[in-house]
C-alpha cells in the first residue's frame, strides 16, 4: 500500500485505553493500538500521537462538580502524561522507537516539548507522543492535537474513536443515524456535530488541515484510511 501523506497526527481518546474496564488502562488495548501504529509507521509515515485523559480524569467533569477549572485541567493534563508513558512502553515493546514530549517540563520522566526537536524526532522515524495538552488550561486534547499538527506541519489529523465516522446523531443510541462520507468544516460547526470541539475545528479549517474520523477498534482501519480507502468520515474544505 502507498499513501499520499508524509506526516500525520493520531488523536486517541483516553476512554479508548480502558477497553472493557470502567477506569484506567488496559494493556490489551495498549498492545492493539501499538500494533496499529506500527502498521502506519511501516507505510513510511511520520507519526505524532495525542492521547486524552478521560480514562483517568477529565478536567471539565471535575470543574462541573465544584473543582476549580484550572486545577482540574492541570490534573487532566498530568493524566495524559500517564497515558502517554503507558503507550510509549507498549510501542517500544513493538520495536517502535518512541519519544514522549510533555508541555509540562518533567525531565525525569520525559522530554520537554520543543517544536524543532519534535520535528527532528519525526524525521528520524521516531513516533512522538505529545503529552500534557499544550500546557494551558481551558484547551481540550482535541485542540492540542490540532495545534501540534499545525506546529509540526502534519498533512492530516486522524481521530480514532468508538464509531466508524461522523453521524447526524449519536449512532450508539439512534439506529436511524445517517453517516457522512465527507463533511465541510463549516457544516461541522453549523450543525454542532461531535467531531472535535469548535476551537479545534476552527483551527483546522483556518489552516486547511483535513481530519479523518474512524473506528479504532477495526484492525487496519487507520492504515487503510491513510492509503486512500473510503473509511470513516473526512472533514475538509
Kindly list the characteristics that best describe this protein.
237 residues, globular, two-stranded antiparallel sheet, alpha/beta, Carbamate kinase
Low-confidence stretches: none
Cα shape: globular
CATH second-level architecture: 3-Layer(aba) Sandwich
What is the mean predicted local confidence, pLDDT? 94
Structure commentary:
The model has no long low-confidence stretch (mean pLDDT 94). Helix content is 37%, strand content 19%. 46% of the residues are buried. It has helices at residues 27-42, 59-64, 69-93, 115-123, 141-151, 185-190, 198-206, 221-226; strands spanning 7-12, 46-51, 98-102, 111-112, 127-131, 156-161, 166-167, 179-180, 182-184, 211-215, 233-236. It is of the alpha/beta class. It is built from eight helices and eleven strands. The strands form two sheets. A nine-stranded mixed β-sheet has the order 4-3-5-2-1-6-10-11-9, with helices on both faces. The chain has a two-stranded antiparallel ribbon with strand order 7-8. It has one domain (7-236): 3-Layer(aba) Sandwich (Carbamate kinase), CATH 3.40.1160.10.
SSE inventory with pairings:
Layout: E1 7-12, H1 27-42, E2 46-51, H2 59-64, H3 69-93, E3 98-102, E4 111-112, H4 115-123, E5 127-131, H5 141-151, E6 156-161, E7 166-167, E8 179-180, E9 182-184, H6 185-190, H7 198-206, E10 211-215, H8 221-226, E11 233-236
Parallel strand pairs: 1-2, 1-6, 2-5, 3-4, 3-5, 6-10, 9-11
Antiparallel strand pairs: 7-8, 10-11
Helix pairs in contact: 1-3, 5-7
